[in-house]
């Protein structure tokens, strides 16, 4: 796993990458977006993305989830424990979805070696850092692929 992580860390936009077809070659491709609530990503509804499988992970979701569960707890430790237990018991799939998304995203970020956000991972092979516009990330990835094809 460590070797895979190191290999994927090297697959950034500015580092050496493997040869592949341009994003716009017509095949369905996947984009995984790793971001935080403070750095939202835009452009997901752009026409160029109609063939993409897009998955967005809000990697700070567990912190927000924990903060929401802890908000307004009583100062008394026993009362706080009872209230926290009540809140946890009332969680349903809808309320758990953001925490689940964040946990999956954090695990995948570790797997890919993503070390800062936002990050766009293309087909599990290449990472673009430092932009919040998905179309700009696609353009950078496409330009890189064309450069590699020369």
Describe this protein's structure.
- This protein has 150 residues and is α+β, with helices and mostly antiparallel strands.
- The protein has one domain.
- The protein is built from 5 helices and 4 strands, in the order H-E-E-H-H-H-E-E-H.
- A 4-stranded mixed beta sheet has the order 2-1-3-4.
- Helix 2 runs antiparallel to helix 4.
- The two termini are 32 Å apart.
- The N terminus is likely disordered.
Outline the fold blueprint.
Layout: H1 2-9, E1 29-35, E2 52-58, H2 61-70, H3 77-89, H4 93-112, E3 119-122, E4 126-129, H5 134-149
Parallel strand pairs: 1-2
Antiparallel strand pairs: 1-3, 3-4
Helix pairs in contact: 2-4
Instruction: Please tally the helical runs, counting DSSP H or I stretches of 4 or more residues.
Output: 5
Q: List the helices and strands in order.
A: HEEHHHEEH
Give the N-to-C terminal Cα separation.
Answer: 32 Å
Q: Give the strand order, joined by hyphens, for the main sheet.
A: 2-1-3-4
Structural class, please?
A: alpha+beta
Mean pLDDT: 81
What is the domain tally?
1
Question: What is the strand tally?
Answer: 4
């Amino acid at each position: 796993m460590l070797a895979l992580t190191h290999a994927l860390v090297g697959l950034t936009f500015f580092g050496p990458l493997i040869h592949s077809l341009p994003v716009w070659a017509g095949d369905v491709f996947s984009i995984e977006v790793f971001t935080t609530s403070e750095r939202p990503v835009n452009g997901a509804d752009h026409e160029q993305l109609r063939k993409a499988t897009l998955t967005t992970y809000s990697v700070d979701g567990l912190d927000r989830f924990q903060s929401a569960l802890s908000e307004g707890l009583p100062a008394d430790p026993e009362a706080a424990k009872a209230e926290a237990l009540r809140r946890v018991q009332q969680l349903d799939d809808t309320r758990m979805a953001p925490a689940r998304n964040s946990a999956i995203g954090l695990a995948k970020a570790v797997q890919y070696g993503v070390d800062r956000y936002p990050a766009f991972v293309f087909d599990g092979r290449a990472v673009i850092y430092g932009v919040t516009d998905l179309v700009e990330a696609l353009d950078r990835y496409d330009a890189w692929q064309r450069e590699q094809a020369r």
